[in-house]
Amino acid sequence: PFSTLFRRPGVMALQGSDLKIAVAEPRSWARRLTITVPAEHVQQERREVARRLAQRVRLPGFRQGKVPPHVLEKRFGPAIDQEAIEHLIGEAYREALQRENLQPITQGEVENLSYEPGSDLTFDVEFEIRPEIELTRLGGFTVERKVAEVTEEDVDRVVQRLREQNAVWHPLEDEAPVVGDRVVVEITPLGGEGESAPRTYEVVLGEGQAVESVEEAIRTLKPGEENEFTLLLPDTESEEEGAMREDRARIRLVEAQRPELPELDDDFAKSVGDFDRLDVLRSRIREDLEKEAESEAEREVRGKLLEEIIQANPFDVPESLIRQYVDRIVQTPRGEQTEKSAEIYEVMRPAAEQALRRMMVIERVAELQGLHRSEEHTSELQSQGTIS
Predict the structure, then answer these.
(1) How much of the chain is in helix, strand and coil states, percent to nearest 5?
(2) Residue 29: is its pLDDT beyond 60?
């Protein structure tokens, strides 16, 4: 009944000095408040609740607003206690947070409620907070910076991709396709109850878009031909990693095309961009690859330094932040945790925890150095649930 703690309008808040508050730290990112509300405040709140109740209740033999207090107590005593306690818990909790300068990132859970008529009200509230990261060491690290050398083979691979992207595709007629050809096939699963409907796929052979046994079967057909095959396919129902199973299927090769790559000359260089000659194109490719390698080396150095800082300044990440992070990635609807989503969470948890550590350290370093994040970076962190 106390899971939602809201202020009720029209009632004066508790004075913080009247509360007794003890703060415990069950975990580095969690706090437990033990709060005691004095008996006189409890009685004052009960009287206020009873007064409002008397104004609206109707009982036989009494005019509205004229029900005697002892009659109200006899008929509605437990309900008066319940409403008064709920309100006092909310008020005391907010007052305690303000006094102790705590900012929860989860809703407080009320436990160990203790109250007897005429006595103090005592209860515990436990919640998680954003960790206060103490970065005691930010320097003295040594990391190696490697920049990959750009070779002629690297340039050749980019040039080849450009040729493939600008290829002209010619249909095959009386010839089976080979690796590199593009095919359209109809595959009909066999072996179940009744024949399943065929499904159409378009793949480029040799690029891993279909399993090996399917590609081998396709390469035995000419356009327009079909046949039945026993295929070796991944067993998605087996818990054993890499498990395979045999399935029967009919495969029809609807069409096949073979690429004709453009000649590697100056005309090709002109066709792909503002380049007069092939050597100018290759020079630009090399320049871009070198810039990319430089940027990758810089990212790697920053990543290594960040990992060094995290190892030198260990801290725990609140479980609630990890779960929010994973839920946003897998888009789990709120309140729809299933056995499957729990398995996904366990698999993704280590990577999510480390990603959050990195972001929290970056935020803390920026704060210590007086830096300000961009609006784009702020939006990204907010979408991941790491800041509010």
Answers:
(1) 45, 20, 35
(2) yes
Nearest to 7 by CA among 80, 95, 82, 76: 95
Q: Are 39 and 133 in contact (CB under 8 A)?
A: no
CA distance 153 to 339: 49
pLDDT tens for residues 173-209? Answer: 999 999 999 999 999 998 766 668 899 999 999 999 9
Alpha helices, H only, the chain: 39-56, 69-100, 152-165, 212-218, 266-272, 278-312, 319-330, 339-368, 375-383
Contact (CB, 8 A) for 182 and 203:
yes
Does the pLDDT at position 261 exceed 90?
Answer: yes
pTM, whole model, 2 decimals? 0.58
Q: What CA–CA distance (Å, rounded) separates 309 from 138?
A: 6
Rounded Cα–Cα distance for residues 6 and 2 (Å): 10
In one-letter notation, the amino acid at residue 181 is: D
Q: Which of 79, 122, 102, 87 is nearest to 13 (CA)?
A: 87
Residues contacting 48, CB < 8 A, separation 6+: 11, 84
Q: Which two tokens stand for residue 369?
A: 């150095």
Tokens linked to 193: 């109850």
> Do 24 and 125 touch, CB atoms closer than 8 A?
no
